[in-house]
């Protein structure tokens, strides 16, 4: 084999597949499409399913089973939804602070280095986990079938993205990243930071958090958490829906005014 063909083969192995790259590039649109479908839920009409919002269905079911009163059940479901919104904002902001917003929202997959600082010491995919918590907050406003669809579809999509990213990272970062995979779990966070092997520590970026950049990058998630904290106690689903739409519009304007800078930082294999 000639050196030229060897270099070509090496480059193809280290590059993401066209399918992985395409899914990653359009990941925001895929997840947004899942959310829209969840709210729309056309299958409720097709199959005569219950279109009542989860916010009403779950408390009514808990009350019917005599587990608690309807009032207490409604309060419990609301507290859980608000908690999910807040956890989502904290996780994504924490992760973005270390990974950098310009990397998190880049359309390209990167594997320039391993980030094992901040939340990445506890779990490999804190940003994706934060997104799932955000979905759990949003499903409060959906029908049961729409809620199930969104949570399952988004997590399946996350699994596809993660496997493509890990393949790329293993191809480019090799043994240090393989040891990071063995040290830190993919989805279940550790209660204490995992101690990386010495060569993993040498290969990590030693990233310092950039909180201002992270807050701007995660403005949508953070504002939705604030919306839930402020207005969920009014038990007005339409008010929350309008607020989410306004926040999403504001986020689009912010991204147009402050486009993400070209990423120059390091990447551990996970994005938004």
Main sheet: strands, sense, barrel: none
Fraction of residues in helices? 55-70%
Task: Give the overall average pLDDT.
Answer: 84
Strand content: under 5%
Task: Give the overall silhouette.
Answer: globular
- Which structural class fits the helix and strand makeup? mainly alpha
Would you identify the regions where 5 or more consecutive residues have pLDDT less than 50? 1-14, 260-272
Order of helices and strands: HHHHHHHHHHHHHH
Taking Cα atoms only, what radius of gyration do you get, to the nearest Å? 21 Å
N-to-C span: 39 Å
TL;DR?
Helix content is 67%, strand content 0%. By secondary structure, it is an all-alpha fold.
What labels would you give this structure?
single chain; 272 residues; mainly alpha; 14 helices; disordered N terminus
């Amino acid at each position: 084999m000639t050196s030229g063909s060897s270099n070509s083969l090496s480059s193809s192995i280290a590059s993401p597949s066209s399918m992985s790259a395409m899914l990653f590039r359009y990941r925001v649109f895929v997840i947004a499409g899942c959310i829209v479908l969840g709210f729309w839920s056309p299958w409720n009409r097709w199959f005569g399913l219950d279109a009542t919002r989860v916010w009403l269905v779950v408390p009514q079911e808990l009350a019917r089973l005599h587990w608690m009163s309807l009032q207490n059940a409604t309060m419990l479901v609301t507290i859980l939804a608000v908690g999910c919104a807040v956890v989502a904002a904290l996780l994504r902001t924490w992760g973005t602070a270390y990974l950098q917003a310009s990397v998190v929202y880049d359309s390209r997959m990167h594997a320039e280095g391993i980030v094992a600082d901040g939340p990445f010491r506890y779990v490999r995919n804190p940003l994706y986990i934060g997104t799932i918590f955000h979905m759990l907050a949003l499903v409060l406003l959906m029908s049961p079938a729409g809620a199930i669809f969104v949570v399952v579809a988004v997590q399946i999509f996350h699994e596809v993205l993660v496997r493509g990213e890990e393949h790329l990272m293993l191809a480019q970062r090799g043994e240090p990243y393989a040891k990071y995979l063995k040290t830190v779990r993919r989805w279940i966070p550790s209660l204490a930071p995992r101690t990386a092997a010495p060569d993993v520590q040498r290969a990590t970026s030693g990233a310092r958090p950039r909180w201002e950049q992270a807050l701007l990058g995660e403005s949508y998630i953070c504002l939705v958490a604030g919306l839930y904290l402020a207005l969920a106690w009014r038990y007005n689903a339409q008010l929350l829906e309008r607020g989410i739409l306004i926040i999403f519009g504001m986020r689009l304007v912010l991204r147009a005014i402050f486009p993400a800078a070209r990423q120059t930082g390091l990447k551990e294999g996970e994005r938004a």
